[in-house]
Amino acid sequence: MTLAEAIIARHAGRPVEAGEFVEVPVDFVLANDITAPLAIEAFRELGRDKVFDPARVALVPDHFTPNKDVRSAEQCRVVRGFAREQGLHYFEVGRGGIEHVLLPERGLVLPGEIVVGGDSHTCTYGALGAFATGMGSTDIGYTMATGRTWLRVPRTIRVELTGELPRWVMGKDLILHLIGLLGTSGANWCAFEFGGEIGALPLDDRLTAANMAVEAGATAGLFPPDNEVLGYLEGRAAREFDPVYPDPDARYAEVIEVDLGALRPLVALPHSPANVVPVDGLERTPIDQVVIGSCTNGRWRDLLVAAEVLRGRKVHPGVRCIVIPGTQELHLRAVREGLAEVFLSAGAVLSTPTCGPCLGGHMGVLGAGERCVSTTNRNFRGRMGHPESEVYLANPAVAAASAVLGRIASPEELSRREG
Q1: Angle 128-132-135 (CA atoms, 0-180°, nearest 5)?
Q2: How far is CA 270 from CA 50, 67, 392, in A?
Q3: pLDDT confidence tier of residue 358, bands split at 50, 70 and 90
Q4: What is the Cα–Cα distance from 56 to 33, expressed in whole angstroms?
Q5: Class of 3-259 per CATH?
Q6: Helix axes 171-182, 203-211, angle to 10 degrees
Q7: DSSP symbol at 260
Q8: Domain spanning 265-418: which superfamily?
């Protein structure tokens, strides 16, 4: 069996095949400030008094927090009250962060598990070897009550990795390459299974790649858990776990070979994550804003790479540069290890953890005609604000270099100009 099939089969208690529907127990459930209120409503309608296991449910307000208006404050009030009533994991301002960065950091999502969340980017946890997928709020309400859910066993697309990442190329470029190859629906009802030289990708980069699997239509994006994953979870895992691995003779719907060494920094042009081109050749595109962060690229390596580009340089006077660490802990580490000073000295803003501008919520909404280079995951029309604004998706190195030059640029071009 493939990795996805093997995890589902373990939970179903029998072998499974791609395409069949199964009902399985889940190991962890999550929702956020947008989806949790509807999930709570669905839970109430079932007439249940208690969730199936408070230790296996997390509610994380992160999209409109810190509360941007009365409506978002009311959403968080409902979520907060339910979390306290039920004794759930609850992470809010000053203690939490962006859900898909926070939960791995807290060791709450683990290899071999089935994780469902009221957010499409729940697939992020596949980087740890979990079968993780997003669901609607009604499904999440039912799962909070029963500890069970339904799944359609996905077909699996194997992504065979070879080579080493060149300088300034990151996990963002790998997943943009795949989305550009397959389109935004080319992996519908499929799971990506990354194999081969996965050790060439640092864990933070794997989390980025898994995060955006859904942008190709995939149900999940999975990496077999190697020693780096197991080392990361040592002393961090909230409970015992048993990793699952694909069979050597697993059968795949498709195999895509990717030479990491041949990748270049890529940019997804408006208004689709599949509209992918190399950063080279876009140098004449002026910008108004840069966002570095989100559940896609708000991790430590992302901050380190952005700081490496910005250190000793200044953000272009015509650009607003917003840096958003993914969690409170990452924000604190950035302060302790000097990255905060690098960002602030360069003329960037360092924000408290929030999804904020990614969905056009707050902390960086775009006006008509404005362009933004962003490390977020979606660039649909109007995603970050006005429908006449434009979002260009890129890795943190490209975003930082663009902030300095005031137009889309690669770090290599920045070095050449200064040399």
Answers
A1: 160
A2: 45, 29, 6
A3: very high
A4: 18
A5: alpha beta
A6: 30
A7: G
A8: Aconitase, domain 3 (3.30.499.10)
